[in-house]
């Protein structure tokens, strides 16, 4: 069975059709989108990456937010393994949830502090979402940046797109009077 139907009005379909990772700039726009996901019975996990100063912070935050088992190894290989279990709904969300959205707030700050860790994390999240889709489980990653020009390069093979409301740069940058 397909995860979404082509005419699905589910908020996840609208984002997933362009990739499993979507960029946001405006806190208000991302808040509205996440509220819409919640109303559609998605589990939303919000993580403020600005507070992550090392990889231990990253692993601690994800482990706590998604209920990883106590034996979680707190490294990227273990993260990929545990997120595979999340894709299979072993933990992190329930079969009653329509889907799972992981929001990484202030991604530009995290990326500036730990660029390699940021790249690895996003690639693992794309792999997780892809596996979830193959299993019929909806998983999306939403990233919010204070930088309206955020360019993180390919994630899972493609640059993540901006959300539909902020697709154009002019939608993300305040216009000044001339």
Quick description:
With 178 residues, the chain is of the alpha/beta class.
What's the gyration radius in Å? Answer: 16 Å
* H/E series: HEHEHHEHHEH
Number of helices: 7
- End-to-end Cα distance, whole Å, is 54 Å
The strand count comes to: 4
**Poorly predicted regions:** none
Helix percentage range:
40-55%
**Beta fraction:** 5-15%
The largest pleated sheet is described as: 4 strands, parallel
Read across the widest sheet, the strand sequence of neighbours is 1-4-3-2
What number is the mean pLDDT?
Answer: 92
* Structure classification: alpha/beta
Shape: globular
Highlighted features:
178 residues, 42% helix, globular
Describe this entry's structure for a reader:
This protein has 178 residues and is an alpha/beta fold. The chain contains seven helices and four strands. A four-stranded parallel β-sheet has the order 1-4-3-2, sandwiched between helices. Helix 4 (76-87) runs parallel beside helix 6 and helix 5 (107-113) crosses helix 6. The protein is globular and about 45 Å long.
Write the SSE topology.
Layout: H1 11-16, E1 21-24, H2 27-39, E2 42-48, H3 55-66, H4 76-87, E3 99-105, H5 107-113, H6 115-135, E4 138-144, H7 169-172
Parallel strand pairs: 1-4, 2-3, 3-4
Helix pairs in contact: 4-6, 5-6
């Amino acid at each position: 069975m397909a995860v979404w139907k082509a005419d699905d009005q589910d908020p996840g379909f609208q984002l997933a059709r362009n990739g499993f990772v979507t960029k946001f700039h405006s806190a208000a726009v991302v808040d509205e989108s996440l509220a819409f996901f919640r109303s559609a019975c998605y589990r939303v996990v919000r993580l403020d990456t600005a507070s992550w100063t090392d990889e231990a912070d990253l692993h601690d935050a994800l482990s706590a937010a998604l209920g990883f088992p106590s034996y979680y190894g707190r490294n990227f290989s273990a993260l990929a393994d545990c997120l595979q279990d999340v894709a299979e709904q072993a933990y992190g969300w329930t079969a009653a949830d329509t889907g799972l959205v992981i929001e990484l707030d202030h991604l530009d700050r995290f990326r500036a502090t730990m660029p390699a860790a940021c790249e690895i994390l996003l690639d693992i999240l794309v792999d997780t979402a892809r596996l979830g889709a193959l299993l019929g489980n909806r998983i999306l990653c939403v990233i919010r940046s204070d930088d309206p020009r955020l360019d993180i390069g390919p994630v899972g093979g493609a640059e993540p797109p901006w959300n539909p409301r902020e697709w154009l740069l002019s939608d993300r940058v305040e216009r000044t009077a001339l």
